[in-house]
Design a protein that fits this description.
224 residues, alpha/beta, five-stranded mixed sheet, 10 helices, 12% strand
């Protein structure tokens, strides 16, 4: 009863995800409801509250030209998961954040989001777990995802790292190097782009000075 699936649009998303097959849609919906019983409630307290409220890892940063919310997933150049920030807490906070944003967008009459994945590679165990959860339980919530900023010579490697992402989601992903290409991909005006996202690859290297060895090590995990 607490899920946006209870709306006509929510049910339609599951139907679209199963290409109009009613029987498969029914199975998917039943699986979703069973999952909700097992996972919820995720109370916004302790590490979950801290991870959401500090705004470091995920937050809304604006809207596209058509009013779709733009969510920033910041992987903090290798500091997304630390000894103090464990994977399970990150996953629970991510799911709770998605739930909260889904409720907000529904109230606005908007039913999808655009996501900018920033700050280098994510921890692969977290990424694979969240992708599995999203595919099964949040169909058609994603309008567009942009992985940014990625050096041009690394783009093919990044695409290869998405081997665990389903085909439908992959079709909504772009991998971009420059600020201009990011803005075009999410249809966002340049004046609305947060300062830390400006300048593409060169801007990120100048502002954050990412450890390239750490970035390479994170990507290698995706192939192991």
């Amino acid at each position: 009863k607490d899920s946006t699936i209870g709306t006509d649009v929510g049910l339609l998303k599951f139907l679209v995800a199963r290409k109009g097959d009613v029987a498969k849609t029914e199975d998917m919906v039943c699986g979703h409801l069973e999952w909700r019983q097992q996972v919820f409630p995720i109370h916004k307290e302790g590490p979950v509250r801290q991870l959401i409220d500090d705004g470091k890892r995920f937050r809304t940063v604006g809207t596209t030209s058509d009013g779709t919310p733009v969510i920033l997933m910041d992987f903090l150049w290798g500091a997304f998961k630390t000894e103090a920030v464990q994977g399970l807490d990150l996953l629970r906070a991510s799911i709770r954040f998605m739930e909260d944003e889904g409720t907000k967008t529904l109230a606005m009459g908007v039913h999808q989001v655009a996501v900018v994945c920033f700050g280098g590679p994510p921890p692969m165990d977290w990424a694979m777990a969240l992708a599995t959860v999203a595919e099964a339980n949040y169909p058609e919530w994603l309008q567009k995802a942009v992985i940014y900023p990625v050096p041009r010579f690394v783009k093919l490697t990044v695409w290869a790292l998405l081997w665990f992402v389903d085909e439908t989601t992959r079709s909504k992903v772009a991998v971009e190097s420059s600020e201009e290409d990011l803005l075009a991909a999410i249809s966002m005006p340049s004046y609305a782009l947060p300062e830390e996202l400006r300048g593409g690859v060169e801007g990120a290297e100048r502002h954050f000075k990412p450890n390239k060895g750490k970035m390479t090590a994170l990507m290698k995990v995706g192939f192991s």
